[in-house]
Write a structure and sequence with these properties.
The chain is an alpha+beta fold and about 260 residues long. The chain has a single domain, classed as Creatine Amidinohydrolase, CATH 3.90.230.10. It contains 4 helices and 15 strands. Strands 1, 2, 4 and 5 form a 4-stranded antiparallel β-sheet that branches. A hairpin with a 6-residue loop joins strand 7 and strand 8.
Length: about 260
């Protein structure tokens, strides 16, 4: 379950390449773009500019380089030519990248054009909740500490945390042990050790936490139709704390 230093170095290389994909997206005007157009741009950038592989392509029979989850879509949204982004939307892009046999996984929720204050607040609190979880990571802490920190922040701000989907170990395979729940009790669950690598990726809902999967078998939506946001980083447990392997250019931890 733990990774050797040379493996973490390769995961960090994949992580920084993936961070550059999000940096590329940050400079794009998403208004009027279909989620399939975004997928195709990301696919081409990973393959042609970074000489890497979109790791989700072909995984579990999935055909695309990313998941695109707008507004009330919680996760696993499938890119579409008819799903055109409009000013006022929020949309999560979840992207995986493999280089030299090692996979990094990250996601970010984007504000498209002029977004309402309630939607902006949900996105901000979700980002903060992810970081609360990251900041709980250190040797000797538990996965319960991580999940508790995330859910406490979300609930204090009036939101709910989706429980059906979780973070996961990652390395040569996209999904490895352990499962990383985004809720939990302090001092319970797996004890963290130096060398563990996993994702932290809370999905936070504006309304109830209940979700359902649409008929395509992939797309997960909120049952009440309210908004959902998500952020994700791949992290490694270090001797003294945590290293964020997918940290993006200019990204700083919120206080």
């Amino acid at each position: 379950m733990t990774k050797r230093p040379e493996e973490i170095a390769l995961l960090a290389e994949s992580g920084q390449l993936l961070a550059s994909v999000f940096d590329h997206l940050d400079h794009m005007n998403l208004i009027g773009m279909s989620t399939m157009q975004v997928n195709d741009l990301v696919d081409g950038f990973i393959v042609n500019e970074l000489n890497a592989r979109p790791a989700s392509k072909g995984q579990y029979g999935y055909a695309y380089a990313l998941n695109a989850s707008p507004n009330h879509v919680v996760c696993h949204g499938v890119p579409s030519t008819t799903d055109v982004l409009q000013s006022g939307d929020i949309v999560n892009f979840d992207i995986t990248l493999e280089k030299s046999g090692y996979i990094a996984d990250s996601s970010k929720t984007y504000l498209v054009g002029e977004v309402s204050q309630p939607a902006q607040r949900l996105v901000q609190v979700t980002y903060e909740a992810m970081w609360k979880g990251i900041q709980a990571v250190r040797p000797g802490a538990t996965l319960g500490d991580v999940g508790h920190a995330i859910e406490r922040h979300a609930r204090r701000n009036g939101y709910s945390v989706v429980r059906e989907y979780c973070g996961h170990g990652i390395g040569r395979e996209m999904h490895e042990e352990p499962q990383v729940l985004h809720w939990g009790k302090p001092r319970t669950g797996l004890v963290l050790r130096e060398g563990m690598v996993f994702t932290i990726e809370p999905m936070v809902n504006q309304g109830r936490r209940a979700v359902e999967t649409e008929e395509d078998g992939w797309t997960v939506v909120t049952c009440d139709g309210q908004l959902s946001a998500q952020f994700e980083h791949t992290v490694a447990v270090t001797a003294s704390g945590v290293r964020v392997l997918t940290l993006r250019p200019g990204e700083k931890r919120p206080h």
